[in-house]
Amino acid sequence: MSDLAAFNNLQLDAIREVGNIGTGNAATALSGLLSRMINMTVPKTELVSIYELGEHYGDPLQIVGAVFVRSTGGFGCSLIFIQNEEDANLMVELLLKQQFGTFIPVAELPGEMKDSALSEVGNIVLSSFLNAINMLLGTQHQISVPGVAHDMLSAILDVVASIYGQMGETALLVNTELSVEGLTDGRKISGHIILIPDPDSLELLLRKLKVM
Amino acid sequence: MAENSVVLGMADLLVMPAPVKLITLGLGSCIGLVVFDSFAKVAGMAHIMLPDSRGLRGSEKVGKFADTAVPALIEEMLKKGATRPRIKAKIAGGAQMFSLPGASAEFLTVGAKNVKETKTKLARLGIALVAADTGGNKGRTIEFSTSNWVLKVKTLGKGITEI
What we know:
The complex is a heterodimer.
Chain A: H1 9-34, E1 38-40, E2 44-49, H2 53-56, E3 63-73, E4 77-84, H3 85-100, H4 111-137, E5 141-143, E6 147-152, H5 153-164, E7 170-180, E8 189-197, H6 202-208
Helix pairs in contact in A: 1-4, 3-4
Chain B: E1 4-8, E2 13-17, E3 20-27, E4 31-37, E5 42-48, H1 66-79, E6 88-93, H2 110-124, E7 128-134, E8 140-145, E9 150-155, E10 159-162
Parallel strand pairs in B: 1-3, 6-7
Antiparallel strand pairs in B: 2-5, 3-8, 4-5, 4-6, 8-9, 9-10
Helix pairs in contact in B: 1-2
């Protein structure tokens, strides 16, 4: 199963459905955390050249806030919750307002507190995503402590290249967008969940979904 | 004569005569390797992604792996008039973007392995490594100009370092 190009549409659709179930659960959890309506897009299963990862998700030099977790167990994978830095800041402000009842501009927060709030959001979104897909697959899993980074998009996505680069030139990613709407000033906060299955767990995934 | 600017993408490898500006954007765990011969007025860059090819599959780019990129880059330099004792090297990159306390995954530390393998291969070919800005947890954008043979390294929150 090292040749990703050989995946057929049925298999890609089945993987997308896994993303759909994960995202639904993640959106519910985020909605509970923020007490807001959350919108989600239909996930996309994408085969992306590892040489074009940076450009694939937008301007490779844009600054993003990213929360990363590893999941081990029956279905090994990595997950990134990635937001424009501006959206990440708005998300932190929204969470703190929700938790403490007062608005604190992110610029007045110490960096560690901002990262801690961001990793809390990422952790809840990504662990809900993982719980749902592991329940679907009937697999056990353990999740790592989340890691947070603020940097250029292409530097962040190097991690995908280092996962898929050793086995070939294509990465399989499931990409979906969550957004918080109905903010007082009409703004919208978005974030992308990117699921990066370990290359050697793809076969298990397809078997469990009975499309292989 | 005006400098041409060339931006190298992932796994690209290029050698050009001066005057030229070689650029790589948004290096995370990847390495930007610069080699130059200021006498022969020629410079090259490679955007290395991983340490070890473990046997290239036919179609892959040589610039992708440290163990294949370093010899290929030096060979290209020699073809363009450089001589081995005059070639100098500078490297930047090899950061670890995420650290997860308690979790071990080989790919998270690929930056450090990229640095190590690149240095080892340069040493084996007898190429002097004269400057390096590697490691840490921040991405880098790099620019090498043959006007002064200086490598400018831009890091978020740290500004520009010249090496």
